[in-house]
Amino acid sequence: MPEALIERLRARGFVPPDYGGGGLLNVAATVLDVLGVRDETDPPPLRALEPALCEGVQQVVLVLADGLGLAQLRALTAAGDMPFVASIVERARRHDRAQLIEATTIFPSTTAAAITTLNTARTPQEHGNLAYFVWLEEFAQVTQMLRWGPGVNRRGSYFDDQRIDPREYAKVPSVHRRLRQRGGESWVIEPEIFRNEAMTRMHAAEANFAAYYLPSSMSVRLHDLLERRPWGDAPAYVYAYWAGIDSVAHVSGPQSADHATEAALFDRALERAIGSRPPGDTLVLLTADHGHAFTDPEKLIDLVGDEQLRSLLRNPIAGEPRLAFLHTDQADRVKQHLERRYPETFFFLDRDEAIAAGLFGRGDPETARQRIGDVLAMLGGDRAASIVKVEGQTFRHRGSHGGMSPEEMRIPVLAWRA
Known about the structure:
Helix content is 33%, strand content 20%. The chain has 418 residues and is of the alpha/beta class.
């Protein structure tokens, strides 16, 4: 029973996704709704968003701070590391034309799935970009989904072959295409290296691309667009991405001094971009694709090196360090082996039960059935697993995501007018 799985998850302290009005999916739907593009096929907008914040909006700015979970934001603002964001949070506390919504990300709690959801207003089950590493039958390989290339390599995309059009692999239309079809415009502010990456070509080809080479320039691009308003009187959507908080959380951990310093740089950049702008016709949404759980690199579980597990699998391991996708014709034996070797360590989800419970979202589940594996082995606490070696290297991160702990799943949506 799907309800039984949700109850078991919550009993273990896990946080299931909320696609019905309290999640990242609904942030994307809110952008469509505020700009007059949302239709009956779309998910609902954020149910908690105050209507007054949406009145008279001409453009929406969505700032995605990769990896800045709700718990991290609270800790950083309390410690004084993010004074500008803290000032908006304080305005939200006073109900002064600002609001902080406690939301959840999608499942799995990972960038590849979350950014695709933001770019399409569709759940992972619908868009099919389900994890960082996914077994793709189309290429018969474990694929690194952000660049759509072999997972065991650091570089290279299947789309380096100019005869292959990435848009043919996009299963749902982008929000950028839909906005353009209705007379609006959209802009994506991302690092220059993202311009020709598969994710951009698949899900943001219809957007204008404003590139930056150094993170500090993200604020320059955003400030410039809001000053120039090249879209004129048309409804406009500006999406701005900051990668550093996620990167440093992986390497140093989400409670580290390095993490706090990167967050402080982001805070200052955001203030320079929009801090001086009085409330006006722009709705700003600051959110994250996921948060981070601290993981102890000394406790890393070497699944990729487990020869007995490998003998039980149909395809190589994929998924996330906190959520292994296991393709197997021997599901019971896989679970028995892992439980025997790592007692009380994994939470197991059967593929069809997880789909029926709506963990991956809505829509036709056929693509998800092919890509997520028959058994999902999820980790909590401070544990992560090695699932793919990239050019022979094992990653030993101090911050991880992909699972369902509160630290990974709960994200902020900080809304205000500028």
